[in-house]
Amino acid sequence: MSGLLDRHIGFVEALREAGLAVSLAEDLDALTALQSVTWDSREVVRTAYAATLVKRQAQRPTFDSLFDLWFPRLVGDGAATDAAEADEDSDAGTVRDSGEALQEFRDELLEALITNEEDRLRQLAGEAVGRFGAMPGRAEGESSWSSYAAMKRVDPDGLVFALMQALLASGEGDEESARATANGRAEAFTRLAEGDARRRIAEQKGPEHVARIAVRPTIDRIDFINARRGELADMRREIYPLARRLATRLTQEHHARRRGPLDFRRTVRASISTGGVPLTTHHKPKRPHRTELVVLCDVSGSVANFAQFTLLLVFALREQFAGMRAFTFVDTVHEVTSYFRPGADPVDVLADLGASASQAALWGRTNYGRAFTKFQDEYAAALGPKSSLLILGDARSNYSDLALPALREMADSARHAWWLNPESSRQWGTGDSAAREYAELVPMVECRNLTQLAEFVHDIL
Description:
This protein is an alpha/beta fold. It contains 19 helices and 10 strands.
């Protein structure tokens, strides 16, 4: 019993380290739920844990990865039949990693991808790692496993075209939908293989080790600039619920602060009816104050993901501002406010702008100094005492002139100025980064993920 309790404690601690806010009360709720279910079904245990510990759907992939580490589906190679088959192959002189065996495995995998049988795909993922992903460990006699090595041999991306053709032949949608389905199934199989490799390594080195180095954090804590393709899609789905939560929270706080300063004259006059005792205080109405927002956004390749999500959230909250103007730059500034028409998706708009020749870099590399100078020369009137300036970028200017006087004039012209940097503050000032110099003129905030972005937006509104 103590071993099971230790495993539960380790699992809950790993969830907290990965970004899930698990309170002591929720921890106890999970223990209570586990006492009420049977342990003969692993999925029932998973569901009991998820119902008590997971608050948002975006946290579920991280939860599932950690659950598979602490409560693995298999031990070692799994079913004894696999070992028996391996012995038979060995006796028959068959090499399980030969070209012929690899082609047979790919044919089986294609058939399973067409039928999309989850149990069969999970079994094949484990088989792929066991047969093609085994690698010698650092210590003598020690083994390790690599899902990357296994996937290079299996090459599921190479099966996507054949899978797409099979889906089209069966009448499952048009070419675009068939391609999307094929890519989705191939990515799902890759995730299954990654999970099996983690399980094997955790069995040898402990789940804590794997959770620390291999399990991705929750979607709201993944760095924008390091996010994978599938994670970017999950982030986009999380943006609008995040905007709604922020808007609701801000509305409640604004209502709570709606009363203005004490109106002493009205309070004293009202106290006459109570013999001069001010039982009821009266307050002056508080003037609503909404600033105009000017966004200056670096859209070079190194920070493109960060710029997309920041603009997506800002434009989702545009009703919080009296007005908004947007400018993009690589080495020269372009106003793009007209592109963000009502209903437009900032991610799609930025993708279109990136493909537009009129928005392309004139000199081929990021130059913050030239962009600030151009903005001050042509768009200085956009800033004023009622406007706030928001700069988005990593402040890496390829050792060019920084145009600090131009940025100082821009910051002085605005009511407020902020700079969001998607790089860790530890990297500011390294290499061609001018973050330290720019931070002396404009307050610079580290903004690497959705959590930090939400905190910043809440603080400035």
